[in-house]
Structure formats: C-alpha cells, structure tokens
Amino acid sequence: MKAILVDEQSPDRTLRWAEAPDPVAGPGEVLVEVCATALNRADLLQRAGNYPPPPGAPPYLGLEMAGVVAGLGEGVKDWQVGERVCALLAGGGYAEKVAVPAPLLVRLPVGWDFVKAAAFPEVFYTAFVNLFMEAQLQPGERVLIHGGASGVGTAAIQMARAEGCQVAATAGTPAKCTRCLELGADLAIDYREGDFAQIVQQRLGGVDVILDISGGAYLERNLKALAPKGRLVLIALLGGPAASIDLGLVLRKRLRIIGSLLRSRSLEEKTQVVEGFAARFWPLMQAGHLAPVVETVLPIQQAAEAHQILAENRNIGKVVLTVRESKT
After folding, report:
1. Domain for residue 312, yes or no?
2. Tens digits of per-residue pLDDT, 182-222?
3. Residue 251's domain spans which residues?
4. 257: closest CA among 241, 235, 238, 233?
5. What's the confidence (pLDDT) of residue 317?
C-alpha cells in the first residue's frame, strides 16, 4: 500500500506519498481500505516529532478515516467485507489501508459519503467525552467553547445546543464568529477584539463549563469566566503549557480543572466513548440534526498543503483528504 511518510531528516519534515508495509488485521480487528481521512492538530504535532503514537498504533499520521471493510481478523463476527464504515484511530489514517479494532467501527448511514464520514469521529467523540463525560455538562447549563470554528468547536457547539445548553464560543475572525452563530451559539466572541472573560461575565453571568484548547495563555481568564462550581476542561495547549494560577479563586468558587486526552486512552475507554455517543447522539446524527462541518477537501497527495491550512488557522471545521475513489 501507500501511506504518507514523514521525512524526519528534512528541515521541514517533508511529507511523501510512498510505499509502506501493508497492515494485517489481528485478532478482533478489521482491515479497512481507506477512502478518506481528516486532519487534526495532533497530526501537526506528530509530524513535528512532539506527539508519538501510542504503543502498538500504526506509525503513520491520521486519527480518523472512512472506507470499506476489506478483511476480518480472528474472532470478528459482526462485520462483513464490503461494508462502508468510519472509525476513530490511534494512528494510520493517512494510508490506503488500516487495521481497526472492531468495537471502534461505525456503519455509515444511508446518504453519507466518505468525506462526511471521515470528518466525524475525532471531533464528535472529543466533544462528547470532554463536555458530557468529563465535565458532566447538563441541559440548561452555560458553556464556553474556545476555538468555536475548529473541527472540535463546530461539533461541540451543535451538541451543547442540542442538549438545551446556552452556548458561547470564541473565534478569531468575523466570518468564524458568524459560522459559530449559524451552528447554534448564542454568543460569539472575537477574541482579538475583546476580553472574553469580561464579555462572558457581562452577558451570561459566567459559565458552568469551558472547553479550552489554549492552556496557559487563557487560564487566568478562564477561571474568572467560570461560575461557582464551574468546570474547565483542557484538551490542548496551543497557548503554552505554563501559567500562574490563583488557587484562592479555585477554592472560593469550588472550581474543577480537568485535563483530558482521547488518543492515549485504552481500547476499553474508547469503546465506552463510542457506545456512549451512539446512545446519546447518534440518532441526531442520522436525522441530520448534527453534522460535521467540512470546508476543504484535498487529495492525500496534497497533505502538506492541507497541514499548512490547519497550521495557519485558515479552516472552518474540518480539512479532509481523499485517499481513493469512493466505493458504494
């Protein structure tokens, strides 16, 4: 097969579409011919050498994919060759084939193409696990979603809105703020134009949950924006890993700070995420009330260009890479 390989010796760690060993479906796994995959910021970190895949995961980039079942490993009974599927991955999406643990596979609904399906798993599962499993977001609560126009942000806005929550989001351009409002946010804040903590306090009286991708740069303001008993969930550190913290504020407001990653979780934990999402939100996905936002679609050979789009924050929603012609 072919896969995107990272030239670790080149200054910019060049991406090449080149021959690579075929994966083999082990016990409990399904071999999938990949038709599309999608970008995540973890791909940029892994390419830079700062986020190695978990033990046993494929070495190639790519945390999600959609494709067609091509083979079954020992003990797999609930899947058939030819079925159209998508899945969350620990790695290996930027390739023509990948072996996937069977419990992580999802059958594509009627009418879904592979581009839409490839853009679904990572962002919707990330939003679900962090808002509803970690932070225990409840209907009627107020939530602030940073990076509201990102893949995770667009998914989180839709899910929180579907649960009857009051949703605020931050974004970096007027166009991105407009998109957040179109997706259901009640308040969209251009973080380049104002202090989001002050605006959230003035407009909403604080929020119960914050989903944060910035880390250190936002910590102080996040704590100020939280209402009593508020929960801050950190899922990335784009603004740096270090910050001073007012522990007195944490005590007085009885706040909780939660760190969370999805990729490094065990198969058992990921299976619980997949099953939990299916029970709570999959009917809304099938009915079209929730949907991944896809702005850019490029062939896998243009992975480097796709990475540049993500690195420069030029995307709204997901950037998808097509790997092969769609199969029905």
Report:
1. yes
2. 999 999 999 999 899 999 999 999 999 999 999 999 999 99
3. 123-259
4. 233
5. 97
Residue where one domain finishes, among candidates 211, 234, 259: 259
CA distances from 181 to 119, 127, 145, 153, 169 (A): 21, 18, 12, 12, 9
- Total domains in the chain come to 2
Report whether pLDDT(327) > 70.
no
Rounded Cα–Cα distance for residues 60 and 39 (Å)? 13
* Residue 201 CB contacts under 8 Å (≥ 6 apart), including other chains: 224, 225
pLDDT class for 326, splitting at 50, 70, 90? low
Whether the CB-CB separation of 90 and 63 falls below 8 Å is answered with yes
Instruction: Inform me whether the pLDDT recorded for 310 exceeds 70.
Output: yes
CATH number, domain of 232, equals 3.40.50.720
As a whole number of angstroms, the distance between CA 314 and CA 178 comes to: 15
- Cα distances from 36 to residues 85, 175, 177, in angstroms, run 11, 27, 28
CA distances for 268 relative to 16, 273, 286, angstroms: 33, 9, 25
Mean local confidence (pLDDT), 121-149? 98
Last-in-domain residue among 259, 279, 301: 259
d(CA 78, CA 190): 47
Pairing between β-strand 256-259 and β-strand 294-299 as defined by DSSP bridges: unpaired
Average pLDDT, the chain: 96
Q: Mean pLDDT, to the nearest integer, of 72-91?
A: 97
3-class secondary-structure state, position 294? strand
